[in-house]
Structure formats: C-alpha cells, structure tokens
TrEMBL record:
This is Metal-dependent hydrolase (Beta-lactamase superfamily II). The keyword Cytoplasm does not apply. GO terms for molecular function: hydrolase activity. The keyword Hydrolase applies. It comes from Rhabdobacter roseus. Keywords: Hydrolase. Residues 30-80 form the Metallo-beta-lactamase domain. Gene3D superfamilies: Ribonuclease Z/Hydroxyacylglutathione hydrolase-like.
Length: 362
C-alpha cells in the first residue's frame, strides 16, 4: 500500500494506491486541499491515472472547509471545461443542506441551479446530483464498505447527530450566503493563536484538554482503511471524543488498542482535536502532520506532539516517527528549546518533505 500526502500548506489531500486481489492497481483519494492544490498537484495525478485506463474507486471529501474541498471544485471546473475527465467511481460526501436529502432530485437541481454564485459545498452537491453520484445514504459512524478488490473502509466520524447539527446550522441559510472558509462566520477551531514552540516538553499539562467546538469539524468524515494486513487511520479534522466512541464500539480500549501502520493526525495537529485519551486507544509508530507551521493557527501545536510522545500507554521501547508534509525553519524549530537530547529521551525522530508529495509505503 502506497500513501501519498500532498503539500497543501495547512490543508489535507492524500491518495492511497494498492494492488487489489484482482491484480489491478486501485486508488482511494482523501480530500483535495485548496483550488490551487488541484491546479499545482492533483491535476497531474488524476490525468496520469486516467491515461493508464484507471479510475479513482472512492474519493472521500471529509467536510466543507476550503482546505479540504477546494481542490475538488477546481477539478469540477476542469471537467465542465472539457479539460479533465471524471474518473471517480464513488464519491463520499455529506452535503450540508437538509433539503437536499428530503427533496426530490429534480427539485434539488432546480434549487441549486437558481443560485448565481455557489459556495463550494453547493457546487459539489449540484454536480453529484446532476451526474447521479450523490450518495444515497449518509456516511456516518460505523458505516463499513468492503471492496473494491480487498479494501475495507470503516467510518469513525461523524455521528448522525453531528451531521444533523451541521444541517441545522445551515437550514435557513441561502445558497449564495454560505461561506465555508474558516473565518469568523464559521465556528473557530480550538487552536493556539500564538505558537507554543517556545514551551519545553515538561511544561505541558497533558490532562488539561478543551475539545474543538467547530460544527464543521465535528461533521468530518474520518475513516479506518484496511487492505490485507495494512491499516491507515485518516482522522481528517474529526473530534477525538467521536473517534474514541467509535473505537470503543469496535471493541478497542487502552488494554486492547487499535494497531495501525499510519495515522494522519487530526486537524493538522491542533491541540483541540488530539487528546491524550484518544492516543491511549491507538498503537502506531508513524504519524503524519499535514501542516506547514506557518499559518494563522500555528499548526501543528507542540502540545499535540507531546501528547502523543508522552502518552501513558505508549509501549516502553517504541520508536516514533513524525512526518511533515513541509520543510521549513518553523517546523524544524519545534523542539529547539528542549535541546537535541530530547529526541533520544523520548525516542522519536522528525522527517520533513521538501517535495510536493510525501510518500509512505506501508
């Protein structure tokens, strides 16, 4: 299994490719970053797959924030201009409007088409309705899909209630008024406004935790992906309490944790989306952070990294790897105040990607 994480600054975009039990190479895409992410990176990826006669079996769009859905909008624009082909077999996307679910398809198309300007979520919804690819059921907690070709995908987030809260929030909002950027119009994620890289490892109070209250982040599709004996945990921007509930329902606990090969850390390493309690239920040696360090929320937070490193249930002799989709002085300075000895004492290393794609083989 090959996992590619694309450089999206503080955003998410990734793909998984694997040889199925049918002997063919299969693709699963996860989010798409910003519109420029498609133009600069994903357009070539999609074109290469299509030119080889392949298709993207599933494209998961976790939620409506611009750093996840923007690249899809650029892809749809390219399709409509005849500059790209739609090679996606199935789309996983929970639309934000309750009336889309309750209305007939034709009524939905007409309502969306009347808007002269579209918010990004509505553009995707409109396209999926017109092409007959709008999911007929919500992708909510513990929904499981087996296949294609030996792949198993289990939804850990959102809950049906969290998705309902998203739709209630936008129930009385006109299509043209929707704004999906993480600005003041949308619930702000619980993230540091100032960098915490100046704090020493031992200064963090790891049991003190305030969870992200963003309704949009709470609606994120987070999934456990399994192929043969390989497992990848994609946390999107999900809330830790939601993931914990799902893992417990699946039979996991601190004494019987979920063992995976790779974790895509939630919400770019925000301290409000990654609790010590969550990582007590997970065993993994490799963690990916999709963040540049140079962003308005100062993500990833050092507090998040320390919670993973100093988790009370971490195996005694485990060696951890933190992989970053970017490489710059900001990220490299995270543990400067602690000195180089911290890497040996906490048994971890950090790796940085200077290319447009961080590739991990499981």
């Amino acid at each position: 299994m090959r996992v590619r994480f694309y450089q999206v600054e503080c955003g998410d975009a990734a793909s998984i490719s694997y040889e199925g039990d049918d002997g063919n190479v299969h693709y699963l895409f996860l989010d798409a970053g910003y519109e420029r992410t498609y133009r600069d990176i994903l357009a070539d990826e999609v074109k290469t797959i299509g030119a080889a006669g392949g298709q993207i079996d599933i494209w998961v769009i976790s939620h409506i924030h611009d750093d996840h859905i923007g690249g899809i909008i650029a892809y749809l624009k390219a399709i409509e201009k005849g500059e790209a082909e739609d090679i996606v077999s199935k789309w996983w996307y929970n639309h934000p409007h309750v009336q889309v679910k309750n209305a007939g398809l034709r009524k939905c198309i007409n309502a969306i088409s009347e808007a002269k300007s579209f918010a990004k979520g509505e553009q995707l919804t409109s396209y999926l309705v017109r092409t007959g690819h709008l999911p007929q059921m919500d992708m909510v907690q513990l929904h499981t899909t087996t296949g294609p070709a030996g792949l198993k995908v289990t939804v850990l987030s959102p809950t049906a209630r969290a998705l309902q809260q998203l739709r209630e929030k936008y129930r009385n909002t006109s299509l043209r008024a929707l704004d999906y950027h993480e600005l003041t119009a949308i619930s702000e994620p619980t993230a540091s406004k100032a960098s915490d890289y100046h704090q020493k490892v031992d200064s963090f109070v790891l049991d003190a935790f305030t969870e992200d209250t963003s309704i949009e982040n709470g609606s994120s599709i987070a999934v456990l992906i399994e192929q043969e004996k390989k497992k990848v945990l994609w946390l999107a921007d999900a809330l830790p309490s939601t993931i914990m509930d799902a893992l417990r329902d699946l039979g996991y606990s601190a004494d019987h944790p979920l063992e995976v090969d790779l974790v895509k850390v939630s919400h770019h390493g925000s301290c409000g989306n990654n609790s010590s309690a969550l990582y007590s239920l997970i065993r993994c040696n490799t963690y990916v952070f999709c963040a540049s360090g140079d962003n308005k929320h100062q993500l990833p937070t050092k507090e998040c990294l320390v919670r993973i490193l100093k988790n009370q249930h971490r195996p005694e002799h485990s060696e951890y790897a933190f992989l970053f989709t970017h490489d710059n002085a900001t990220l490299r300075s995270i543990f400067d105040v602690d000195g180089s000895a911290i890497f040996k004492s906490l048994r971890f290393k950090m790796s940085f990607s200077a290319s447009k794609c961080l590739e991990v083989h499981c």
